[in-house]
Amino acid sequence: MTKYAACIEYNGTAYCGWQRLAHAASVQEEVEKALSFVANQTINLSCAGRTDSGVHAIGQVAHFESSANRSTTAWRMGCNANLPDDIVLRWIQPVNDSFHARFSAISRRYRYIILNHQTRPAILNNRVCWFRDSLDEKLMDSAAKRLLGENDFSSFRASACQAKHAMRELQEINVSREGKYIYIDVVANAFLHHMVRNIVGSLFEIGIGNKPVTWFDELLSIKDRTQAGITAPACGLYFVSVRYPDEYQLAEAEAPFFGL
Protein backbone atom coordinates (compact mmCIF):
# COMPACT_ATOMS: atom_id res chain seq x y z
CA MET A 1 0.00 0.00 0.00
CA THR A 2 1.23 3.47 -0.91
CA LYS A 3 0.00 6.59 0.84
CA TYR A 4 -0.73 9.65 -1.33
CA ALA A 5 -1.44 13.29 -0.57
CA ALA A 6 -3.64 15.15 -3.04
CA CYS A 7 -4.59 18.80 -3.50
CA ILE A 8 -8.17 19.46 -4.58
CA GLU A 9 -9.73 22.67 -5.92
CA TYR A 10 -13.49 23.07 -6.10
CA ASN A 11 -16.38 25.44 -6.51
CA GLY A 12 -18.61 24.46 -3.61
CA THR A 13 -21.85 25.99 -4.90
CA ALA A 14 -23.48 22.71 -5.97
CA TYR A 15 -22.37 20.63 -2.98
CA CYS A 16 -23.44 20.08 0.62
CA GLY A 17 -19.80 20.61 1.56
CA TRP A 18 -16.75 18.41 1.61
CA GLN A 19 -18.05 15.56 3.76
CA ARG A 20 -19.82 12.63 2.13
CA LEU A 21 -23.53 12.46 3.02
CA ALA A 22 -26.18 9.93 2.07
CA HIS A 23 -28.82 12.51 1.12
CA ALA A 24 -26.84 15.15 -0.84
CA ALA A 25 -23.98 15.62 -3.28
CA SER A 26 -20.56 16.19 -1.70
CA VAL A 27 -17.06 16.96 -2.91
CA GLN A 28 -15.62 13.98 -1.06
CA GLU A 29 -17.99 11.58 -2.81
CA GLU A 30 -17.11 12.91 -6.27
CA VAL A 31 -13.35 12.72 -5.70
CA GLU A 32 -13.53 9.27 -4.14
CA LYS A 33 -15.58 7.98 -7.09
CA ALA A 34 -13.06 9.35 -9.60
CA LEU A 35 -10.03 7.99 -7.74
CA SER A 36 -11.73 4.62 -7.23
CA PHE A 37 -12.33 4.40 -10.98
CA VAL A 38 -8.65 5.04 -11.70
CA ALA A 39 -7.49 2.60 -9.02
CA ASN A 40 -10.11 -0.05 -9.85
CA GLN A 41 -10.61 -0.37 -6.09
CA THR A 42 -12.42 1.57 -3.37
CA ILE A 43 -10.63 4.75 -2.26
CA ASN A 44 -11.44 6.53 1.01
CA LEU A 45 -10.19 10.06 1.63
CA SER A 46 -9.27 11.93 4.82
CA CYS A 47 -9.09 15.71 4.44
CA ALA A 48 -7.33 18.61 6.16
CA GLY A 49 -10.55 20.46 6.99
CA ARG A 50 -14.19 19.87 6.14
CA THR A 51 -15.83 22.80 4.34
CA ASP A 52 -19.53 23.69 4.61
CA SER A 53 -22.17 23.79 1.92
CA GLY A 54 -21.36 26.46 -0.66
CA VAL A 55 -17.76 27.04 0.52
CA HIS A 56 -15.00 26.86 -2.08
CA ALA A 57 -11.43 25.55 -1.94
CA ILE A 58 -8.23 26.29 -3.80
CA GLY A 59 -5.92 23.98 -1.86
CA GLN A 60 -7.88 21.39 0.10
CA VAL A 61 -5.51 18.55 0.99
CA ALA A 62 -6.55 14.93 1.48
CA HIS A 63 -4.76 11.62 1.76
CA PHE A 64 -5.55 8.02 0.83
CA GLU A 65 -3.87 4.65 0.51
CA SER A 66 -3.92 2.34 -2.47
CA SER A 67 -2.20 -0.77 -3.76
CA ALA A 68 -2.87 0.26 -7.39
CA ASN A 69 0.29 0.75 -9.42
CA ARG A 70 -0.28 4.16 -11.04
CA SER A 71 2.04 7.06 -11.82
CA THR A 72 1.21 10.44 -10.33
CA THR A 73 0.37 11.64 -13.85
CA ALA A 74 -2.06 8.76 -14.34
CA TRP A 75 -3.69 9.47 -10.98
CA ARG A 76 -4.10 13.17 -11.74
CA MET A 77 -5.22 12.95 -15.37
CA GLY A 78 -7.41 9.91 -14.83
CA CYS A 79 -9.11 11.45 -11.82
CA ASN A 80 -9.71 14.79 -13.56
CA ALA A 81 -11.20 13.04 -16.59
CA ASN A 82 -13.83 11.56 -14.29
CA LEU A 83 -14.57 14.61 -12.15
CA PRO A 84 -17.29 17.21 -12.80
CA ASP A 85 -16.12 20.57 -14.14
CA ASP A 86 -16.36 22.28 -10.74
CA ILE A 87 -13.82 19.97 -9.07
CA VAL A 88 -10.20 19.34 -10.08
CA LEU A 89 -7.23 17.45 -8.66
CA ARG A 90 -4.36 19.95 -8.76
CA TRP A 91 -1.54 17.62 -7.73
CA ILE A 92 -0.89 14.26 -6.13
CA GLN A 93 2.28 12.78 -4.67
CA PRO A 94 3.39 9.86 -2.48
CA VAL A 95 4.01 10.63 1.19
CA ASN A 96 5.46 8.58 4.01
CA ASP A 97 3.27 6.62 6.39
CA SER A 98 3.45 9.26 9.12
CA PHE A 99 1.50 11.81 7.04
CA HIS A 100 -2.09 12.62 7.92
CA ALA A 101 -3.95 15.36 6.04
CA ARG A 102 -5.64 16.61 9.21
CA PHE A 103 -3.36 15.74 12.11
CA SER A 104 -0.05 16.60 10.41
CA ALA A 105 -1.24 20.12 9.55
CA ILE A 106 0.45 23.06 11.24
CA SER A 107 -2.09 25.64 10.10
CA ARG A 108 -4.91 26.32 7.66
CA ARG A 109 -5.47 29.47 5.64
CA TYR A 110 -8.86 30.87 4.57
CA ARG A 111 -9.74 33.91 2.49
CA TYR A 112 -13.11 35.65 2.56
CA ILE A 113 -13.92 37.88 -0.43
CA ILE A 114 -16.46 40.71 -0.31
CA LEU A 115 -17.70 42.69 -3.29
CA ASN A 116 -18.38 46.04 -1.63
CA HIS A 117 -20.42 47.74 -4.32
CA GLN A 118 -23.95 49.03 -4.88
CA THR A 119 -24.58 46.58 -7.73
CA ARG A 120 -24.72 42.82 -7.20
CA PRO A 121 -22.32 40.57 -9.16
CA ALA A 122 -23.34 38.47 -12.15
CA ILE A 123 -20.21 36.68 -13.35
CA LEU A 124 -19.01 36.31 -9.76
CA ASN A 125 -22.40 35.25 -8.44
CA ASN A 126 -21.89 32.59 -5.71
CA ARG A 127 -18.14 33.25 -5.79
CA VAL A 128 -18.02 36.40 -3.64
CA CYS A 129 -20.14 37.89 -0.88
CA TRP A 130 -22.00 41.00 -2.04
CA PHE A 131 -22.29 43.80 0.56
CA ARG A 132 -24.02 46.96 -0.64
CA ASP A 133 -23.29 49.41 2.19
CA SER A 134 -19.87 51.06 2.31
CA LEU A 135 -17.39 49.26 4.58
CA ASP A 136 -14.37 50.79 6.33
CA GLU A 137 -11.74 48.09 5.89
CA LYS A 138 -9.25 49.89 8.15
CA LEU A 139 -11.61 49.76 11.12
CA MET A 140 -12.37 46.13 10.29
CA ASP A 141 -8.66 45.31 10.25
CA SER A 142 -8.10 47.03 13.61
CA ALA A 143 -10.93 45.05 15.18
CA ALA A 144 -9.78 41.78 13.63
CA LYS A 145 -6.27 42.18 15.03
CA ARG A 146 -7.78 41.97 18.55
CA LEU A 147 -8.49 38.29 17.89
CA LEU A 148 -4.84 37.33 17.37
CA GLY A 149 -3.32 34.73 19.66
CA GLU A 150 -4.83 31.84 21.57
CA ASN A 151 -8.38 32.68 22.63
CA ASP A 152 -11.76 31.18 23.44
CA PHE A 153 -13.78 31.77 20.26
CA SER A 154 -17.17 30.75 21.70
CA SER A 155 -18.73 34.00 20.42
CA PHE A 156 -17.77 32.96 16.88
CA ARG A 157 -18.72 29.30 17.15
CA ALA A 158 -21.82 27.78 15.51
CA SER A 159 -24.32 26.19 17.87
CA ALA A 160 -23.91 22.89 16.01
CA CYS A 161 -20.12 22.86 16.44
CA GLN A 162 -18.92 19.47 17.69
CA ALA A 163 -15.46 20.54 18.85
CA LYS A 164 -14.63 19.65 22.44
CA HIS A 165 -13.62 23.23 23.27
CA ALA A 166 -13.48 26.67 21.65
CA MET A 167 -9.80 27.47 22.23
CA ARG A 168 -7.99 28.20 18.97
CA GLU A 169 -4.77 29.98 18.02
CA LEU A 170 -5.37 32.70 15.47
CA GLN A 171 -1.94 33.22 13.89
CA GLU A 172 -2.73 35.81 11.22
CA ILE A 173 -5.71 37.96 10.26
CA ASN A 174 -5.68 40.81 7.77
CA VAL A 175 -8.40 42.91 6.15
CA SER A 176 -7.40 44.70 2.94
CA ARG A 177 -9.10 46.39 0.00
CA GLU A 178 -8.37 46.37 -3.72
CA GLY A 179 -10.85 48.69 -5.39
CA LYS A 180 -14.35 47.37 -4.70
CA TYR A 181 -13.10 44.04 -3.30
CA ILE A 182 -12.32 43.46 0.38
CA TYR A 183 -10.15 40.47 1.30
CA ILE A 184 -10.13 38.95 4.78
CA ASP A 185 -7.24 36.51 5.25
CA VAL A 186 -7.23 34.25 8.30
CA VAL A 187 -4.65 31.68 9.43
CA ALA A 188 -5.11 29.47 12.50
CA ASN A 189 -3.97 26.14 13.83
CA ALA A 190 -7.58 24.93 13.49
CA PHE A 191 -11.05 26.39 13.05
CA LEU A 192 -14.44 25.98 14.72
CA HIS A 193 -17.65 25.39 12.77
CA HIS A 194 -18.56 28.66 10.97
CA MET A 195 -15.74 30.46 12.81
CA VAL A 196 -14.49 32.51 9.85
CA ARG A 197 -17.98 33.34 8.61
CA ASN A 198 -19.06 34.45 12.09
CA ILE A 199 -15.97 36.64 12.44
CA VAL A 200 -16.76 38.23 9.06
CA GLY A 201 -20.40 38.77 10.02
CA SER A 202 -19.24 40.62 13.13
CA LEU A 203 -16.73 42.63 11.10
CA PHE A 204 -19.65 43.91 9.00
CA GLU A 205 -20.93 45.66 12.14
CA ILE A 206 -17.54 47.33 12.60
CA GLY A 207 -17.23 48.25 8.93
CA ILE A 208 -20.56 50.10 8.73
CA GLY A 209 -19.97 51.88 12.04
CA ASN A 210 -22.61 50.14 14.15
CA LYS A 211 -20.03 48.90 16.65
CA PRO A 212 -16.68 50.25 17.90
CA VAL A 213 -13.41 48.44 17.30
CA THR A 214 -13.31 47.53 21.01
CA TRP A 215 -16.48 45.44 20.57
CA PHE A 216 -14.29 42.47 19.61
CA ASP A 217 -12.65 42.55 23.04
CA GLU A 218 -16.13 42.30 24.54
CA LEU A 219 -17.11 39.40 22.27
CA LEU A 220 -14.03 37.42 23.30
CA SER A 221 -14.80 38.11 26.93
CA ILE A 222 -18.52 37.24 27.03
CA LYS A 223 -18.17 33.99 25.04
CA ASP A 224 -21.74 34.25 23.75
CA ARG A 225 -22.54 33.55 20.10
CA THR A 226 -25.91 35.33 20.34
CA GLN A 227 -24.14 38.64 21.03
CA ALA A 228 -21.97 38.58 17.89
CA GLY A 229 -22.86 39.40 14.29
CA ILE A 230 -24.54 37.32 11.63
CA THR A 231 -23.04 34.30 9.91
CA ALA A 232 -21.67 35.69 6.63
CA PRO A 233 -22.72 33.86 3.43
CA ALA A 234 -20.76 30.75 2.46
CA CYS A 235 -20.19 31.92 -1.13
CA GLY A 236 -17.42 34.36 -0.14
CA LEU A 237 -15.30 31.81 1.72
CA TYR A 238 -12.31 29.94 0.26
CA PHE A 239 -10.20 27.26 1.92
CA VAL A 240 -6.90 28.45 0.49
CA SER A 241 -4.13 26.18 1.76
CA VAL A 242 -2.68 23.97 4.45
CA ARG A 243 0.81 24.24 5.90
CA TYR A 244 2.68 21.04 6.79
CA PRO A 245 6.14 20.35 8.22
CA ASP A 246 8.90 20.77 5.62
CA GLU A 247 9.67 17.04 5.70
CA TYR A 248 6.57 16.33 3.58
CA GLN A 249 7.53 18.86 0.85
CA LEU A 250 3.94 19.74 -0.04
CA ALA A 251 3.22 22.93 -1.98
CA GLU A 252 0.81 25.55 -0.62
CA ALA A 253 -1.82 27.07 -2.91
CA GLU A 254 -2.13 30.81 -3.48
CA ALA A 255 -5.22 32.80 -2.49
CA PRO A 256 -7.78 33.78 -5.17
CA PHE A 257 -7.77 37.41 -6.34
CA PHE A 258 -10.33 39.14 -8.54
CA GLY A 259 -8.51 42.41 -9.08
CA LEU A 260 -10.01 45.87 -9.02
Describe this structure in words.
This protein is of the alpha+beta class and 260 residues long. The protein folds into 2 domains: 2-104, Alpha-Beta Plaits (2-Layer Sandwich), CATH 3.30.70; 107-240, 2-Layer Sandwich (Alpha-Beta Plaits), CATH 3.30.70. The protein has 5 helices and 10 strands; from the N terminus they run βαββαβββαβββααβ. The protein has helices at residues 27-39, 72-81, 137-145, 195-207, 215-222, and strands spanning 2-10, 46-47, 56-66, 87-95, 107-116, 129-131, 149-152, 167-178, 181-188, 237-243. Strands 1, 2, 3, 4, 5, 6, 7, 8, 9 and 10 form a 10-stranded mixed beta sheet that branches. Helix 1 (27-39) crosses helix 2 (72-81) and helix 3 packs across helix 4 (195-207). It starts with a strand and ends in a 17-residue tail after the last strand. 39% of the residues are buried. The mean pLDDT is 95.
Summary tags:
260 residues, 10 strands, 29% strand, 10-stranded mixed β-sheet, single chain, Alpha-Beta Plaits, globular, alpha+beta
* Overall spatial form: globular
**Beta-strand content estimate:** 25-35%
**How many strand elements?**
10
Any idea what the CATH architecture of the largest domain is?
A: 2-Layer Sandwich
Rg over CA atoms: 19 Å
Order of helices and strands: EHEEHEEEHEEEHHE
Helix content: 10-25%
Q: Which CATH C-level class of the largest domain is it? A: Alpha Beta
Tally of individual helices: 5
CATH topology of the largest domain: Alpha-Beta Plaits
Terminus-to-terminus distance = 48 Å
Number of domains: 2
CATH level-four homologous superfamily name of the largest domain = Pseudouridine synthase I, catalytic domain, C-terminal subdomain
**Mean pLDDT over all positions:** 95
Structural class, judged by helices and strands? alpha+beta
Extract low-pLDDT stretches: none
* Largest β-sheet summary: 10 strands, mixed
